[in-house]
């Protein structure tokens, strides 16, 4: 339980975890082209996010945020 050191990659792991949770949820009105496109983009983001070193790198370099 050492919390004083800073490890920026843990934020990337957290983003990946949140994506997996969002993708595993069942939605009531999950039909339609917009939902399908959003799910596809979130899946692509989840696959790529682990290649970044920090959440800052994700925001600055990930195509999803450009």
TrEMBL record:
EC number assigned by the record: 2.7.11.1
Keywords: ATP-binding, Kinase, Nucleotide-binding, Serine/threonine-protein kinase, Transferase
Coiled coil, from the record: none
Recorded superkingdom: Eukaryota
Pfam families named in the record: Haspin_kinase
Domain named Serine/threonine-protein kinase haspin C-terminal: residues: 1-65
Catalysed reactions, as listed in the record: L-seryl-[protein] + ATP = O-phospho-L-seryl-[protein] + ADP + H(+); L-threonyl-[protein] + ATP = O-phospho-L-threonyl-[protein] + ADP + H(+)
Entries under PANTHER family matching the protein: INTERLEUKIN-1 RECEPTOR-ASSOCIATED KINASE, SERINE_THREONINE-PROTEIN KINASE HASPIN
Name of the protein: non-specific serine/threonine protein kinase
Organism: Xenoophorus captivus
Taxonomic lineage from the root: Eukaryota, Metazoa, Chordata, Craniata, Vertebrata
């Amino acid at each position: 339980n050492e919390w004083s050191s800073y490890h920026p990659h843990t934020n990337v792991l957290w983003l990946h975890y949140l994506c997996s949770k969002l993708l595993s949820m069942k939605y009531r009105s999950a039909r339609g082209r917009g939902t399908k496109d959003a799910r596809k983009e979130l899946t692509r983001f989840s696959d790529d996010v682990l290649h970044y070193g920090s959440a800052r790198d994700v925001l600055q370099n990930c195509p999803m945020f450009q």
